Amino acid sequence: MNTARTRRWRVRVPRPEDFRSPAHAPAVAARLGLWLGVALAVCFGTGLLSHLAQHPPGWFGWPTRPVQLYRITQGLHVLSGVAAVPLLLAKLWSVYPRLFLRPPAVPARLLAHAAERVSILVLVCAAAFELVTGLVNVARWYPWRFFFPTAHYAVAWLAAGALLVHVGVKLPVVRAALGEPVRAVPGRRAVLGTAVLAAGAAVLATAGVTVPWLRRVAPLAWRSPAGPQGLPVNRTAAAAGVVVPADWRLEIRWDQARHALSLPELAALPQRTADLPIACVEGWSASARWTGVPVRDLLAAVGAPTDRPVRVASLEATGRYASSVLPAAHVADPLTLLALRLDGAVLHPDHGYPCRIIAPSRPGVLQTKWVTRLEVLP
């Protein structure tokens, strides 16, 4: 009796022939893999650009124009990641019967089979980590202890390497599958169309974070112009622990010299107004009209060099972004402002009062608020 009961509840391992749905056809899997690869490549490339813009090595220079450049690249980074979520799920659904194949008995083919399986495992785990943590990041919820940008950057390289290995192993199969007409089996076009519609709907539902004219039709956009002075805020003055002293003065240092300016003295200098976006690494962006003193003109007014990088220090005493470095190209750009006003009004404390940096084509985390010191570097 126990033997019969054991046989009754024995689970049979599924075989590939058990899956006859058009969703599992090689032609479908290859096309889904191609689209997913494009989405992941765009996401990886734009993420790499964002990393280089924030942590530029000596050989890299991030341009100041067009002024919307970082807004575009980071928007593409997040939206391609959003599109990759349904494409990854559809791709996994199309190929999971293959996971039940037994290893080949031929030793020469066993190595390729092992490389394929290992690359799939690493790729799926890395891609899932990147997409899940990326979506959690845009929601500004961090249930982990590691520093998100560092981990996100490292795992991205792991995913890219696994993807290259997987494509190299499967390239002959992919070529043959892409040459097979989709219409050969009924239902294939419906599967592919559903995946494309799901990816398109996900992008459309979130694109309003960076595409202004889509905000009204983007119900899942995670940022809206609801902060003080109509501009979103990630970190408030209270959260940063910033208290502006009554005798606040902007200190400018270079070589062995230094100069200090009060807020009225800054306001008395020639001002410039520019329409520039705040583009956050989380993908959201918003444009505003900023008024202030061009950093180049400010340095020239006190006799400091204008052709070197400048370290910008904040009243925020701690934190990874309590200071930033303006590259020489941004210092020289006349649109790089030490902003004093936003849309004609004095800066709100949450937007960096008494003054902040606003520069063209620059990550939002580097648009330092509550500026207290400019130091011209050698």
From TrEMBL:
One of its GO terms (molecular function) is oxidoreductase activity. SUPFAM superfamilies: Oxidoreductase molybdopterin-binding domain. The chain crosses the membrane at residues 32-52, 72-93, 118-139, 151-169, 190-214. InterPro entries: Mopterin_OxRdtase_euk (IPR008335), OxRdtase_Mopterin-bd_dom (IPR000572), OxRdtase_Mopterin-bd_sf (IPR036374). It comes from the Bacteria. The keyword Membrane applies. Keywords: Membrane, Transmembrane, Transmembrane helix. Residues 244-377 form the Oxidoreductase molybdopterin-binding domain. This is Sulfoxide reductase catalytic subunit YedY. It comes from Micromonospora auratinigra.
